Amino acid sequence: MPDGFDVFLSHSSQDKPAVEEIARHLRGRGLRVWLDKDELRPGLPWQEGLEEGVRASRSVAVFVGADGMGAWQTPEMRAFLARSKKEEIPVIPVLLPGCPDSPQLALFLEAMTWVDLRPGLTDDGLDRLVWGITGRKDASARPVPAAVTSLRRVWWNWGIALSLLGILLTLAAWLLPRSPEPPPPPSRPAIYAVRVQVLSPQGLPVTGSTIRTSAGNEPQRTPDGWWEVEIPAAKVPAGGQITLWAEHPDWRGNRKDLRLGADPNVQVEIRLKEPESWLRGQVVDEEGHGLADARVSIQGGPPGETITDPQGRFALLLPVPPETRVRVRAELKGMEPNEPFCFAGRDTCSIVLEKP
Predict the structure, then answer these.
(1) 7-141 CATH choice from 3.50.50.60, 1.10.260.40, 3.40.50.10140, 3.30.70.600
(2) Cα 138 from Cα 144, distance rounded (Å)
(3) Class of the CATH domain delimited by 194-271
């Protein structure tokens, strides 16, 4: 029966944990094991499954534990003994841990040589069990499948190749010229002196500017028109980055992000932006009602023109600093135009138009 089982494991339910462990060891040695838990299909009569297992197995191991043999083990043994007379089927009593020193075996088992596993699942005990199952005393002599032999040969060849590769890489690391070690990072000075020049949008130096910094002492004006800030290294963030801001009443301010390193003396320029501010307001009639579609423009100053919305509101973006005084002209057909002064950057420019 080339497709059968090497051994049928006959046991009582009380000994099932120990027998399952033995089954695992036997399968690890390449044996095909019949164990009810693994072979009896749910939903089918289990008695027929047992009979099929008996017919398909080339040997039987009868396990005897602390409680002796189970009720179903005797019929199983009788079936194997009947086969044994015709086919020389090995019937192997196996004494499990906890089995009494003088086990009470069935009469038909007393004549069989048993395997004593009462000291535990030792290699010697398992070797004897494999001997009884296979008829080969040296368990290691069990033939290895050709696929396993081929796989071992592949792994062996890979192991040799990887070992040689490791040796070659080691030699190359020693023989090839090595790149010099990178120099240590430069140390930071104890204090930085940062000089700042503020420029107009056209790139010309300006006076009347102010600056501030994210770290350091109070900026000081120098005689040549620059600003100078002393920044202790202890106040510099870990990444070395600081920010400088420049402001001027005639232009929009700007900023400069700076990363401090090993140089203690740093010079930077900050160019201001063109001025910009919003002029917002409303054109109304004599009774304070908003006048829609009125034309609003700047007179005698920077260009700027818009039309009021349905509520008479307007907004002009002017290229002048906030608080710059500008003349604003509002006109609407059928109304007298008006040119009051307003201040850029405010939302309170109110222009009243009257009827002629």
Answers:
(1) 3.40.50.10140
(2) 14
(3) mainly beta
